[in-house]
Amino acid sequence: MNDFPKVIHLHEEGPREGIQIEKAQLSVAQKVELIDSLAAAGLKQIDCVSFVNPKRVPNMADADDVARAIRKRDGVRYTGLWLNQQGLQRALDLPLDIMGSLRVTASETFSIKNTNKSIAETFDEQRKWMDTYRDHGVALEWGYIMTAFGCTYEGHVPMARVMDMAARIIELAEDYDQSLKGIYLADTVGFATPRDIEERVGALRDRWPDLKVGLHLHDTRGTGMPNVYAALRMGVDQFDSSTAGLGGCPFADHKGAAGNVCTEDIVFMCEEMGISTGVDLDALIETARMAEDMFGHPLPGKVMHAGSLSRFKV
């Protein structure tokens, strides 16, 4: 039995999370070219930069310049990521589309490594974000739970802890008379299997049936696309993805950290299954190949190397 969606929504992470772990330093012009090519291929939401310490993530040292240089297209959201109040203030001062979000981590150790804050300190920080959103008229949209399946420091994360994180996010939103579109579960370091997807998505839906569930998946151990398929069978229609499979978490504590599930691989699979993505696959493949040329080494996407099946269709 399945409940495949008719349409899915992809949040492209390549220019932000994809770039952050690469050794090559792209110029502002190259980053803008990549972002524009993704938008031209039909992606409607693109995470362009992150506002983090450039000493820890050197590839984001030019985040402000990139945000100012983006050539915006109608109907496309150009977003950025912040992990603290200072980053949020930077984002608000730039011509980006501010997506109100709450972000917590289910692993205490990973939270400290990634943001230099404990889980308790993170929730205190989230209240500052909510105050800032209110003051600037920013609507709250999604809650994110990082390491929602496992952590390279602490191992498998219990489902009860993930459910507690979700409950606390929802409670915080309610304290500010806000409602969430849904909760994103992030498999930050690639622990999840299809069974985990079914169990955790199912548990969230059982407890909060009106909330959407989104997934931020990594292909660290080769389960990225099987996890997408498992989620599709349950009707999940919100995914983060990265062109060419770019990326990986710089704080994952292992050398094999892989990027998000590959955007063009998801687009290929979904379109062949009759699930609309709104993306021009052939144009996206060219973008992925352009990214590979920019970074100067093979990237892990499959469809970008094999090609689409469009030439076989009448």
Gist of the model:
The chain has 314 residues and is of the alpha/beta class.
Account of the 3D structure:
By secondary structure, the protein is an alpha/beta fold. The chain has 12 helices and 10 strands. The strands form 3 sheets. The protein has a 6-stranded parallel sheet with strand order 1-10-9-8-5-4. Strands 2-3 form a two-stranded parallel ribbon. A two-stranded antiparallel sheet has the order 6-7. Helix 2 runs antiparallel to helix 11 (281-295) and helix 8 (194-207) runs parallel beside helix 9. It is globular. The protein starts with 8 loop residues before the first strand and ends in an 8-residue tail after the last helix. The relative contact order is 0.16. The model has no long low-confidence stretch (mean pLDDT 94).
Radius of gyration: 18 Å
Strand neighbour order, sheet with most strands: 1-10-9-8-5-4
Category from helices, strands and their pairing: alpha/beta
Proportion of helical residues: 40-55%
Mean pLDDT: 94
Residue runs with pLDDT of under 50 for 5 or more positions? none
Overall body shape: globular
Q: Classify the beta-strand content into a percent band.
A: 15-25%
Number of helices: 12
Record field, number of beta strands = 10
Outline the biggest β-sheet.
6 strands, parallel
How far from one another are the termini?
31 Å
Order of helices and strands: EHHEHEHEHHEEEHEHEHEHHH
Secondary-structure blueprint:
Blueprint lengths: L8 E4 L1 H7 L7 H13 L4 E7 L11 H7 L7 E6 L2 H8 L7 E6 L2 H8 L3 H18 L3 E7 L3 E2 L3 E2 L2 H17 L6 E6 L6 H14 L4 E6 L6 H10 L4 E4 L21 H10 L8 H15 L7 H4 L8
Parallel strand pairs: 1-10, 2-3, 4-5, 5-8, 8-9, 9-10
Antiparallel strand pairs: 6-7
Helix pairs in contact: 2-11, 4-6, 8-9, 10-11
